[in-house]
């Protein structure tokens, strides 16, 4: 307790100020949904991952077709035969290092207290950082299908692209499109929101700025993560305890990516 006396007041006029009660807020869980919720994994990062991960696809080959049933029907093409080819792998997907940091006074904080804050920064923001980084790959690789006036038309265009390939896939979009999609009955279900034809919606916080008005459909996605590395050390020169929690994350998708840009406001 601190006590102060006003010199201009009477000798008996003394005011007291109590220090505030300290309440440390509990760690919050990261927001649900997004890229991690719809992906296979997280899987352990494989050995020798520094050169990236090359996904060998199994869901986008060309070995399928139809054949006449009538045995008396002469084939139009005498050389017709059942054939097909496996899909080629996409370019390797490279890892991204994500980290959480905290620092505070050496006098008041231990290593574990500082590490707790660093861990929480990583837990809360890892997915959004990964989504933001992954968006660069999506935008660079996706085939542009054009523009749409609204989220309904965009979803129809992307679902068509997925349907002709026979897979439900993943629809990647900024979190600002979740409410309009749900309102238009384009996204429903729990814990994963799905489109009318069953595609998984990844409404990501990291996609809000990175994808903006663009919605991208891909084949199935997979996430790989390394163990979290933690370091805490005192800095005598700065009189602080510094802590870092970090790990590597790789995200990849199979088959293809196509994009539609919504040429209209969120509504």
Unreliably modeled segments? none
What integer is the average pLDDT? 90
Largest sheet: 5 strands, mixed
How many E strands? 12
Shape: elongated
Helix content: 10-25%
User: How far is the first residue's CA from the last residue's CA?
Assistant: 54 Å
What is the CA-based Rg, rounded? 27 Å
Strand content: 25-35%
What structural category arises from helix and sheet content? alpha/beta
How many structural domains in the coordinates?
1
Total count of helical runs of at least 4 residues = 5
Secondary-structure element pattern, one letter each: EEHEEHEHEHEHEEEEE
Overview of this structure, please?
It is a single chain. The protein is an alpha/beta fold and 267 residues long. The chain has one domain. It is built from 5 helices and 12 strands. The strands form 3 sheets. Strands 3, 4, 9, 10 and 11 form a 5-stranded mixed beta sheet that branches. A 5-stranded mixed beta sheet has the order 5-12-8-6-7, with helices on both faces. Strands 1-2 form a two-stranded antiparallel sheet. Strand 6 (170-174), helix 4 (178-183) and strand 7 (200-204) form a beta-alpha-beta unit. The mean pLDDT is 90.
Quick summary of this structure?
By secondary structure, the protein is α/β, with parallel strands linked by helices. Helix content is 22%, strand content 28%. It has one domain (34-54, 90-262).
């Amino acid at each position: 307790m601190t006590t102060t006396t006003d010199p201009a007041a009477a000798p008996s006029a003394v005011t007291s100020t109590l220090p505030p009660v300290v309440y440390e807020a509990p760690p919050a869980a990261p927001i649900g949904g997004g890229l991690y919720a719809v992906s296979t994994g997280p899987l352990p990062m494989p050995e020798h991952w520094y050169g990236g991960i090359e996904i060998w696809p199994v869901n986008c080959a060309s070995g399928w077709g139809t054949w006449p049933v009538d045995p008396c029907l002469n084939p139009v093409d005498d050389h017709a035969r059942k054939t097909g080819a496996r899909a080629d792998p996409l370019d390797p997907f490279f890892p991204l290092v994500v980290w959480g940091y905290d620092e505070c006074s050496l006098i008041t904080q231990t290593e574990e207290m500082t590490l707790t804050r660093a861990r929480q920064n990583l837990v809360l923001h890892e997915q959004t950082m990964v989504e933001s980084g992954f968006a660069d790959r999506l935008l660079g690789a996706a085939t542009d299908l054009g523009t749409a006036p609204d989220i309904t038309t965009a979803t129809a265009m992307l679902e068509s692209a997925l349907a002709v390939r026979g897979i439900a896939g993943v629809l990647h979009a900024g979190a600002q499109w979740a409410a309009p999609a749900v309102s238009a009955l384009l996204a429903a279900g729990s814990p994963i929101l799905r489109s009318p034809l069953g595609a998984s919606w990844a409404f990501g916080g990291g996609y809000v700025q990175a994808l903006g008005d663009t919605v991208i459909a891909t084949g199935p996605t997979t996430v790989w993560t390394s163990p979290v590395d933690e370091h805490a050390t005192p800095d005598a020169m700065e009189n602080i305890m510094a802590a870092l929690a970090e790990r590597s994350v790789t995200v990849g998708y199979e088959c293809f990516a196509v994009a539609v840009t919504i040429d209209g406001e969120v509504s």
